[in-house]
Amino acid sequence: MKISFGFNTIFVVLSCAWIAYASDPSQLQDFCVAVPDANSAVFVNGKFCKDPDMVVAEDFLKQGLNNAGNTSNQLGSVVTAVNVNQLPGLNTLGVSLARLDFAPYGINPPHTHPRATEAFLLMEGTLYVGFVTSNPADLNQKNKLFTKYLNPGDVFVFPQGLIHFQFNVGKTNAVAFAGFGSQNPGTITIANAVFGSDPKIDPDVLAKAFQVEKNIIDYLQAQFWSNYN
Ligand SMILES: *[C@@H]1O[C@H](CO)[C@@H](O)[C@H](O)[C@H]1NC(C)=O
C-alpha cells in the first residue's frame, strides 16, 4: 500500500513537470492586422526594437510626474500616463504607470483596462473607488460591486479588464499613482465607447440594450464625450 502510494506520488509529480505551455503571445495593442509585405508594416505586436548599440539612458527616463495634471475639465480629473507610448524603454517589459489628479468631487469615470491589472496607490486626499465583476455564471446573481474609501497610503487593486472608477469625495485635491501589468494597458471609458464612438452606434441598438426610449440615447449621443484618461 505504502509503496503504491509513493509510486503514484512520483508519477503525479513527473506528470506535472511535463506540462508544456504553448499559445500565442498576449496582445500588446487592440489588434495587429497582418500585412504581406514587411516594408509596409508599422509595428509588430508592440513596437519595433531600437538597435541596442544606439540605446541611451534617456530611453528609460520620463520626467515630470511630480507635476500635477490640469483637472480643469468637465470630469475634474486627469490621468498622466507613462506607458510605452511616452517611455519607449518599457517596450516588451510588461509594466507601466500613471499619475492621477482629482479636483474636489472630480471623477475618473467607469472604465476598464483590457490588458492590465492596476495597483492604485493614493498619496493625497480621499477617494471612493470600486470595481464590478464580470457577468456571473448563475443567471439569478448580479455583477458584484466592490468598493472602498481610500486614504493616503492606501493601495487598492483593480483586476484586469473589470469596470472600475475613482471619485474624489474630499474637499481637497487628490493625487494617486497607478502601476499596470502591461506596457500598454489600454483604457476603455464606458460612456465614451458606448455613446461617443465614431461613427455612432445605431441608437436603436442602444435603446434596446439599455431599455430606454430612443430620445434618451439621442441625448446621450449628442453629449461631448471627451477623453482625459
Ligand atoms: C488648464 O486647462 C484649461 C482648459 O483647457 C485651460 O484654460 C487652463 O489654462 C489650463 N491651466 C494651466 C495651468 O495650464
From TrEMBL:
List, alphabetically, the PROSITE patterns matched. Answer: PROKAR_LIPOPROTEIN (PS51257)
Main location per the UniProt record: secreted
Q: Return the SUPFAM superfamilies for the record.
A: RmlC-like cupins
Question: Does Flavoprotein appear among the keywords?
Answer: no
**Cellular component terms, GO, for this chain's entry?**
apoplast
Q: Which residues form the signal peptide?
A: 1-22
Cupin type-1 domain boundaries: 63-218
An example of a Pfam family matching this protein is Cupin_1
User: Which cysteines form disulfides?
Assistant: 32-49
Record's keyword terms, sorted: Apoplast, Disulfide bond, Manganese, Metal-binding, Secreted, Signal
Gene3D superfamilies annotated for this entry?
Answer: Jelly Rolls
- Binding-site positions, Mn(2+): 111, 113, 118, 164
Question: Any idea which positions bind oxalate?
Answer: 108, 113, 118
> Which Gene Ontology terms cover its molecular function?
manganese ion binding
Please state where this protein is localized: Secreted, Extracellular space, Apoplast
Q: What family does the Swiss-Prot or TrEMBL record give for this protein?
A: Belongs to the germin family.
Record-given protein name: Germin-like protein
